[in-house]
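Thread: DUF4139 domain-containing protein, structure

OP (GT): Posting the sequence first so everyone is looking at the same thing. Length is 541 residues per the record. Can we get the structure tokens written out before standup tomorrow? I want them in the notebook alongside the other entries.
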Amino acid sequence: MRYFVGLVWALGMAAGPVLADQIVVGSHITAVTVYPQGAQVTREVDFDAPAGASEVLITDLPEDTQAELIRLNATGVVLGAFSLRTDRLPPRDDSKDPAVLAAKAAVEAAEAGVRKAQAGVDAITAKVEAAEAQADFLRRVKPEGDAVTVDGVKALAVMVGTEVLAAREAALAASADLPAAQKAVEDAQKVLADAQQTRDAVSQGAVDYTGLSVAVTADAAGPAHLVVTHFIESASWQPVYDMMLTRKDPKLTIARGALVSQYSGEDWQGVDLTLSTAQPSAQAEPSTVWPQLRRVVDPAPVSQPLAKGAALAEGEMDAMVEPVMEPEVVMAAPMIQGDVVVYHYPAKVDVAGGVENLRLALDEITVVPTIVAQAVPRADQTAFVMAKFTNDSGEILLPGQAFLLREGVLVGATSIDSVAPGAEEEIAFGAIEGLRLKRDMPLRAEGDRGILSSSTQVEEKAVLQIENLTDEAWPVRLLDVVPYSEQEELEISYTADPAPSVVDVDGQRGVLAWEFELPAGEKKAVQLDSVMRWPEGKELQ
């Protein structure tokens, strides 16, 4: 039975029925759907329901659980009202959790190990101290009475020396075992620290939580099962790509992955994970277009000071009032366009709370790219590999970080925008050190290097050069720019030898491109001249 929260949550916030029993239970997260921002969490609860009415209090929902997005299903009981509770909650009791019990047992065993190792150190230290005390006592022994004779003193000296030597040897022998015993203590303490950390991670008794109180009714006592679905904000995922380019038999392999993180205050252990491109918390409807009323009025006369008490003539007030416009609503556009894409991870996963992103592999897409060496001598000293491809996978490529590999070598990283199915995209794959660029400005008899100017004319001459020092031929796209004008008074002309292959590249005025094949060891030069002329008395900007 599924209840929609618009009714049930409202009932839960009102005065509920008086319930005979309260059943305090924990839940187990079985499935999570993560969105670019937020996540839908599915929890399951098993309990023994008494006959009649009772209250089930689930004590492990995260603090940021959104009440309006809770959904419930039940087996074995009939659902009533429910509500979230943030106060008057019983402390969490995780003493029956097998993971908590195992962690506590590990801590107790580690503590016993520390005590045993420390006892070994103490025993060795006691032996050393006893031997040292014996030697110190023997050194203070003096002959008295009948022993104060030459033979008595000699005998006492021999005895003291022998016994002191034996005591010192015993002390040294015991000290030799001390480093190993101290190392055993250090190892035992490390085992204890790890066990305590594990216990603290699995035990959530001290973590703040939200309780979900659910009224249930059972015809007869017996087992019952609840499925709770709710939404949290503190989770997200983002795509990550490895883009692997090979030039011979051109191929671009796009290995897709996902970085998942969550800060809900609890760990997701062994969950069924789904990644969705839907954005429940983003804009869900189009913006509103408001009508715009415009009108034309006579220009307002130059204002003159009014005499004290003078009034405006009829109609003058209307001319001075600004027309009233309907407001335009400015709203953020959705970050991701296109249909929703869902990725279901085939294996159960663990996603710890509050730690670094968990990376999961998705799948691979292979496309056939068009590869060129793009050269911009005006700004760069080398050409760069550019791979253009069409997304023919049938799925959208989401915005994300991409790591770039060319012929198996990592050459850099970039960020890609959303690429819809059937759309084209071009990605740069690093510099080609063997394709050297140069842009020369030939010397002139007068004026600056490469530029001859006057008060009404500027003439520029440039030579674009590219040299292929590699052992293979490259398809090249050479780019440069000449100025353009939208004024009749400013005349701009240019000549290029050879002529450019493309003018106004990608709709950009004045951007020129030369496309050609450059064999290994060859050079290519382009002569580009431009002239700008304007009338006397004008300034060039």
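GT: Both are above now. Quick notes for whoever picks this up: Residues 1-19, 306-338, 443-448 have pLDDT under 50 and may be disordered. Residues 98-139 form the longest helix (42 residues).
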